[in-house]
């Protein structure tokens, strides 16, 4: 959907929209029972919502494409994830709640192992502990290429975040990770002329890091990838005319919401805390993105029963949201995370929208088979936001 | 659909296609009965057509987008309404059957009220009567900026049509309607350099109109918008190889048909007259667009029962059309106009195609739920024409 078209059609209204994102929502049937996580779970309230509302299956990026968290959420927020790309460095920064600024250049780092000849023998330095990682990051923190402020933040195990802060830093630096063993790390190479100065600064940092890590085997070198700056996405207030708020426990999702201009609301550590935050701030916003993570985590663990339990947990907040009487209430997912795959997958994702203006369909349950037969059919996730605006009577007619 | 591709594949044939457009066809269920207008109506012949044919739901512009009559029809005629835009001024001219020429610049006008300070106090001049509007239009008719022929035609209540005829008139004039009260009307501003002369002429007209209207309170000023010229759309004969005719009672739809090069056939004032015209001219054309308006009008009135009655009326001509044995017979709508909304809406529109070559589906009734479960699923309205051509054996193979 063309954002310029939507921007042209948006009208003011005081209607309210809630989008509950159940991360990694879709699943696959257990070979033992033939039932998916959603089919196995007792999700009474979601089923009732499906019966009342209009169901379908969203395709986050394209048929066969497995989305990361970034593209999966951007699509639900109405942004074509193929057009609006968020670099890995920036995602890593969002993921640890780093206060990224517009002049910052972010990269994802790995500690790795090189041999005496300088050839890579382990791209993950034997997966050192997060504590070791933090200590090593402290060792690198005060490297300061001239004119640049530097941040080296531990993430998890061998992974860290590199931020260079300063004026004139450019994107367009190729990864230094050759993605294979037995070869040396690559130099940071400028992919465009305007990135040459930045590449030089990165290479200075790498050289000094190598010196300081020389006796830290197995973590005696670093690899950097996903050099990226804050992506300039049009804000939801500008494109959709929405005063939007995000309620999410994990930093990554708060960060993605910030990219599109949502106000991130402080909340607690449970889905009940998120519901309480939604209630407290109900009057202050038009649009609420509420994020629930556990379904994805348990799916990634490959733990079918635990994903079922997580679905039942999030089901419990549905009545509380409905009590607020949003004009439009939608439940969907950023992608599927089938326990059988123990990771994200390309499968379409169940979706339901409920409003006064939904043409009812015959979908009676909130699961993959029922939603697929729903009135919305299988459709691009980028259409979720326009559909919400239409149902919230926030779009005027196109053409006379 | 890429028109160049279709043009490349079109082959000659003597097959005949009928497209019956039931304006504002789609609806929403009545809260009392749970049945939509189509479900409530006794549409025996349309139901039989659905049972014999292949059903689906068309999306006129995009998910969540409510189309005006222009985009809704262009899509059914095979033209992407986002690519081919028709200005409001041109649509207003088409709507009153004004004989628009290629050199004409059209704008939609409102009589409005300004106070002594020149600030707008009512954008619609208290909705003056159509008779008053006609008298005021006569007062403005003989204003003649040098080199320009001028037409000022009453439309309805405070609305009128302004046509400037002359060589070198350009599009790209911004609206003079500021769309708010308490501010003065805007001057006509050129949005491109080549429109500067035109803007000057428009401003001369506005200045003189203001003088002449000074004592005509509440209609003491005018606002103009949607400045546009005849849009150059490829004709159906050129793109689709069709000798196409339009049978429509209302000027707007005859006008839209003219834009794509259809021959507009004179007809009477009822759907039975339209059927008679179709029969009389059956030998002369390959493609017939037959338009039925009452469903949309009664939907816009919010009159559920009257929309049901209109559906039953148009159902009555279906056997007469089938008796002609068109190779392809299609029934669809330009958009939905649910009585509950009392206006156009974004909901997909029921559609049926019947030909020797349709793969039958399980849709047994012509209504929203049945068509949604039909063999065509939910698909873009711009695919209707290519589908018709295929079923009429008027498209050759793509690629060897």
Descriptive account of the structure:
Chain A has 400 residues and is α/β, with parallel strands linked by helices. Helices cover 32% and strands 19% of the residues of chain A. Chain A has 15 helices and 13 strands. The first copy, chain A, has helices at residues 3-9, 37-40, 44-52, 69-76, 88-95, 130-140, 196-213, 236-240, 251-259, 271-280, 294-301, 304-315, 318-323, 368-372, 384-391; strands at 17-22, 54-59, 104-114, 120-122, 149-156, 159-165, 221-228, 244-247, 263-264, 287-292, 328-332, 349-354, 378-380. In chain A, the strands form 2 sheets. In chain A, strands 9-8-10-1-11-12-2-13 form an 8-stranded mixed sheet, sandwiched between helices. In chain A, strands 3, 4, 5, 6 and 7 form a 5-stranded antiparallel sheet that branches. In chain A, strand 3 and strand 4 form a beta hairpin. In chain A, helix 5 (88-95) crosses helix 9 (251-259) and helix 11 (294-301) runs antiparallel to helix 12. The radius of gyration of chain A is 23 Å and the shape is globular. The relative contact order of chain A is 0.25. The mean pLDDT of chain A is 96. The A-B interface holds A 1-2, 5, 9, 357, 359-362, 375-377, 379-380, 383, 386-391, 395-400 and B 28-29, 34, 36, 61-71, 81-82, 85-86, 88, 91-92, 226, 340-341, 343-347, 368-369, 372, 377-378.
The total strand number of chain A stands at: 13
Structural class of chain A: alpha/beta
Low-confidence stretches of chain A: none
Major sheet attributes of chain A: 8 strands, mixed
Give the strand order, joined by hyphens, for the main sheet of chain A.
Answer: 9-8-10-1-11-12-2-13
Please name the two chains that share the biggest interface, counting residues whose Cβ lies under 8 Å from a Cβ on the partner chain.
Answer: A-B, 27 and 35 residues
The oligomeric status of these chains comes to: homodimer
* Overall pLDDT of chain A: 96
Element order of chain A: H for helix, E for strand: HEHHEHHEEHEEHEHEHEHEHHHEEHEH
Which range best describes the helical content of chain A: under 10%, 10-25%, 25-40%, 40-55%, 55-70% or over 70%?
25-40%
Beta-strand proportion of chain A: 15-25%
> In whole angstroms, how far apart are the ends of chain A?
20 Å
What characteristic shape of chain A results from the CA principal axes?
Answer: globular
Total of DSSP H or I helical runs spanning 4+ residues of chain A: 15
Rg of chain A, rounded, reads 23 Å
């Amino acid at each position: 959907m063309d954002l310029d078209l939507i921007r042209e059609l948006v009208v003011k209204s005081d209607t309210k929209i809630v989008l509950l994102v159940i991360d990694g929502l879709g699943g696959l049937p257990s070979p033992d029972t033939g039932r998916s996580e959603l089919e196995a779970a007792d999700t009474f309230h979601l089923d009732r919502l499906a019966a009342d509302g209009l169901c379908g299956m969203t395709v986050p990026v394209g048929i066969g494409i497995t989305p990361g968290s970034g593209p999966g959420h951007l699509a639900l927020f109405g942004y074509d994830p193929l057009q609006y790309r968020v670099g890995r460095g920036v995602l890593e920064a969002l993921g640890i709640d780093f206060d990224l600024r517009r002049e910052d250049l972010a990269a994802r780092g790995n500690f790795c192992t090189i041999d005496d000849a300088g050839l890579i023998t382990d791209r993950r330095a034997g997966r050192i502990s997060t504590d070791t990682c933090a200590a090593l990051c402290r060792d690198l923190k005060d490297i300061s290429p001239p004119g640049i402020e530097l941040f080296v933040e531990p993430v998890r195990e061998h992974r860290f975040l590199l931020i260079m802060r300063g004026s004139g830093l450019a994107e367009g630096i190729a990864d230094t990770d050759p993605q294979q063993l037995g070869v040396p790390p690559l130099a940071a190479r400028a992919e465009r002329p305007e990135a040459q100065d930045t590449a030089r600064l990165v290479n200075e940092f790498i050289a000094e890091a190598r010196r300081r890590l020389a006796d830290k085997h197995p973590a005696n070198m670093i690899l950097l990838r996903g050099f990226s700056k804050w992506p300039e996405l049009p804000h939801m207030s500008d494109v959709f005319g929405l005063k939007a708020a995000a309620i999410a426990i994990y930093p990554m999702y708060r960060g993605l919401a910030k990219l599109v201009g949502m106000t991130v609301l402080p909340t607690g550590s449970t889905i009940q805390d998120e519901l309480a935050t939604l209630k407290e701030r109900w009057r202050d916003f038009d649009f609420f993105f509420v994020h629930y993570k556990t379904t994805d985590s348990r799916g990634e663990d490959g733990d079918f029963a635990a994903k079922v339990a997580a679905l039942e947990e999030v089901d419990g907040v549905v009545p509380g949201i409905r009590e607020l009487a949003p004009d439009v209430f939608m439940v969907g997912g950023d992608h599927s995370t089938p326990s059988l795959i123990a990771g994200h997958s390309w499968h379409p994702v169940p979706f339901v929208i409920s409003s006064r203006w939904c043409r009812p369909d015959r979908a009676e349950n909130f699961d993959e088979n029922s939603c697929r037969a729903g009135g919305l059919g299988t459709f691009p996730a980028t259409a979720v936001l326009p559909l919400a605006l239409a149902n919230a009577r926030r779009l005027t007619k196109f053409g006379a």
